[in-house]
Amino acid sequence: MRSTNRRVRLAVAAIGATALVAACGSDDSGGGGGGEDGGALVVWTLENLPDRVAAQEEIAAAFTEASGIEVELVAIDEDQFNQLLTSSAAAGELPDVVGALPLSGVQALAANELVDSEAAAAVVEDLGADTFSEQSLELTRDGDTQLAVPSDGWAQLLLYRQDLFDAAGLEAPETYEDILTAAETLDSPEVAGFTGANVGNDAFTQQTFEQFALGNNCQLVSEDGEVTLESDECVAAFEFYNDLMTNYSLSGAQDVDTTRAAYFAGQAAMVVWSSFILDEMAGLRADALPTCPECTADPAYLAKNTGVVTAIEGPDGEGGAQFGEIVSWAITVESQTDAATEFVSYMMEDGYEQWIGFSPEGKVPTRQGTADEATRFIDAWATLPAGVDTKAPLADFYPQDVLDALRTSPDTFSPWGITQGQGALVGASLGELPVPQAISAMTSGEVDPGEAAQQASAAVQEIADSLE
Q1: Which of 5, 112, 165, 276 is packed most tightly, with the most Cβ within 10 A?
Q2: Does 100 reside within a domain?
Q3: What predicted TM-score, i.e. pTM, was given to this entire model?
Q4: Could you give the CA distance from residue 196 to residue 239 in angstroms, rounded to a whole number?
């Protein structure tokens, strides 16, 4: 055990990698990889917003007080992760632990043999594998090897105006057919049937399309790593999205901000967005308030009158699938192993409710509960206060069926490329955005859906070739 002095350092990464290496290595107590007596435990976190960093400082301080292990918390931007990882590994200054690491980041660590899979497996085994979402464990494994400890996730959702659907006698939009029927029925000069992203330089466009593509069993790659965007399933997904966007959506360029704004203004009957929208839709964030006509009298009107679909099914689909992101705790090969496993275990148990609590709408628990209290964490999640300027539990605004759909969503996540072991390709593709560029060209009329699929496939194949 370390000294019992309560000591938590915070170093926010500067723009370049050099600044981060200095932050990790300049402290007299040592950085990551120093052995069991190498000084403070160095923890990188990709949850780098100031209020979230402050919350993590509090959790780390409580861990230090309980364990005597000092923690040096380093907040970094996700966009800088690969660069910082490379430079820090070369300098021998890897952190002990990385938190809020997306699936592609876990794969990047594993591909470079920088992850301590035995330590991750030990944490999962100690906490109880049966207390985790089975799919979250599957997505963070390589075969039978547990690469990281899945902590939470955010879900991509199809949100729809339940009041408009009920008035028109429409079924919930769970299939391609139901979605197109609803979009055609509800589309009018005042309200678009659907709004979705089509900007070519925005990863949100791919996330939106991928939600629909997965539902039709359209995959980025096959099990043997072959790019499959020209498959019949994928061409059908491009055709479906093109129909929605060109016939029933708002005109012009649409992105993460404009799609939310249109739905909040009551100008669209359906939208695809992440679960991070839920607190905003309830009127809990001052800079993103709903502006629909009914929202003047009741800022939470949309929250009370919005239905949620998680998994969508296309004609070639197999039971529905969903895009979402699982983030994890990864322990590196140069970690102070005992201290690192103790810290991650703490974050997944004693500190877990506080961890998911600083943004519950986007941090759906992947660990349902403990061996003694099987639903402890998932039950607590629904009661945790969400929001920024105003705080209130999601359960104050959303019916139980919406919360149930969200709480079980990690079990349906199946993002492109991860289960096929192509995390590096996924990460590189999100850097160059070939799929959003093809969608932009398609929805602007430059290419037809078949040509868009060919364009995206060729570009992804070129990226895949560059990684060999």
Answers
A1: 165
A2: yes
A3: 0.86
A4: 14
pLDDT value for 352: 98
Question: What pLDDT is attached to residue 428?
Answer: 87
pLDDT profile of the chain (468 residues), mean per 10: 33 30 31 54 96 96 98 91 88 96 89 94 98 96 94 96 98 97 98 98 95 96 96 98 98 96 98 96 93 95 95 88 94 95 98 96 96 94 91 92 89 91 87 95 98 98 93
Q: Flag whether 216 is in a domain.
A: yes
Report the SS3 class of residue 140.
coil
Q: Is 436 helix (H, G, I), strand (E, B) or coil?
A: helix
| Rounded-to-integer distance, Cα 136 and Cα 116, Å | 18
Q: Is residue 2 part of a domain?
A: no
How many helices (H) does the chain have, and how many strands (E)? 20, 13
Q: What whole-number distance in Å separates Cα of residue 92 and Cα of residue 333?
A: 11
Phi, psi of 198 (to 5 degrees): -145, 10
Segments forming the whole domain that contains residue 407: 154-323+398-467
Measured from the Cβ of residue 328, the count of other Cβ atoms closer than 10 Å reads 27
The helix/strand/coil state of 201 is coil
| Radius of gyration, alpha carbons of the chain | 22
Residues 6+ apart with CB under 8 A from 282: 299, 300, 303, 386, 387, 392, 394, 396, 397, 398
Tell me, yes or no, whether 306 and 429 share the same domain: yes
- Look at residues 39, 82, 190, 83 and name the one whose alpha carbon lies nearest to residue 426: 82
Phi and psi angles of residue 340, each rounded to the nearest 5 degrees, phi first: -65, -45
SS3 sequence of 149-185: EEEEEEEEEEEEEHHHHHHHCCCCCCEHHHHHHHHHH
Question: Could you tell me which residues come within 8 angstroms of residue 126 by beta carbon, excluding any fewer than 6 positions away?
Answer: 341, 345
